[in-house]
Amino acid sequence: MAEPSANSLAARTASTPNSAVNSKEPSRASTPANAPVEKPPDDSSKLKTFLGVLRRFIGVSDLAAVRFSLPAQLIEPIPNLEYWHYLDRPDAFISIGDSDEPLGRMLGTLRFWFTKDLKYVKGKPCKPYNSTLGEFFRCTWQIEDTQPPLKHTHNSQPSSSATSITGDKVVKVSYLTEQTSHHPPVSAFYVDCPEKGVIARGYDQLSAKFTGTNIRVIAGAHNLGIFITLQNRDNEEYQLTHPAAYLGGLLRGSLSVSVADSCYVTCAKTGIKVILEYLEEGWLGRTQNKVQGVIFKYDPDNDTKTRIKDVSDKEVLGRIEGCWQDKVYYTLGNGPFAKTPEKILLIDLNPLHPVPKNVPSLEEQLPNESRKFWDGVTNAIVNKQYSLATTLKQDIEENQRRKAAERKAEGRDWQPRFFAGAVTPVGKPDLTQDGEEALKGLHEDRYDLAPNKENGAF
């Protein structure tokens, strides 16, 4: 699934600090002048066509593994690797480790959690380009270190080691992702903020099933969640698992994302766990997008509690409640949420919007770097040359199949460039030397990279 149509173009953008382009102004190569301009389909006809394609896959256990090809007019002009990240609000990410108290750091992790998919709160979902083997994307964010500290005890002021809450310090976050496997489709990602000592990594893999009325999307077998390490906090590691999401509105012609599942945030070193339960339907079937949760002490060697009702009051440190598309609050202590007088705001999503990213200019990108790789298709879609875009897209897909056949005939397995292995059993990718150099270059605003020795799709 991908970015909202209005926002997807905004996410490609560009004012140019040094040689990076900010993701608000697209930069594209030209397409043939004689390619015909076609009338763009409206959202309703797009959905009808999309639904017609999906109906062929009713009962298929995993749509994501099928990787069926859609015509260009149904796709948003943005690469999947550029879209599929969790840093809509990198300012929330860099503040995770600010608190001097374990509970405060868990609350900081939860604040980040509720901002990671802000694109779905602020817009409608749609379909990006399928990633190709060996394709990669890199970018940075430069943000002010201004997140307020979170209160973590009844009788104390919030503690924080944040360098600034006045906007006088700018912090850089760097992001690198690569498509490491095509069957199944898996990408590895790595996020780094050396100034704050925060890193995140993981594998993105989705499994999707079309039921006839909606698409149920869950994490694939290699996607064990987001793993966040706080280097300045004795390398505390937080694992954040993904709940099932549902893409609905197919029949009524208006796509929407809903969540009705449980997910977990755990930190073995501090012995603190969070269970979040998303409740989609309310009284008389009205959508409420409600989330509730419990923060509690747990035993990492005997982690058996998976439901809020499994947690005894004596273990509870705090409770969570609110709307994941609006405001989320927390309480401290083990009392019921409704009966606790002080309900503290964890996050208000209403004034927030995704933060634009800085991306190397096309001239500095390698041929298999996402924006450059898909540039011809993007240019054709933006110019409403949908037949041309579909042809270019099909050429890419055919080239990828040809390359895969060549490797199979030669008995060779694909080796990612920036990550050590296509997948790992623990869900935490490690960087290769090339990956470390690419990330270091992002930190230093250097974008020169040697060409790939082998490419997967051209």
From TrEMBL:
Drop me one GO molecular function for this one: sterol binding
Query: For bias kind Polar residues, which ranges apply?
Result: 1-33
Taken from the record, one Pfam family name reads: Oxysterol_BP
InterPro entries assigned? OSBP_sf, Oxysterol-bd, Oxysterol-bd_CS
Q: Where is this region: Disordered?
A: 1-43
Record-annotated membrane-spanning stretches: none
A GO CC annotation given for this chain: cytosol
Record's family? Belongs to the OSBP family.
Protein name according to UniProt: Oxysterol-binding protein-like protein
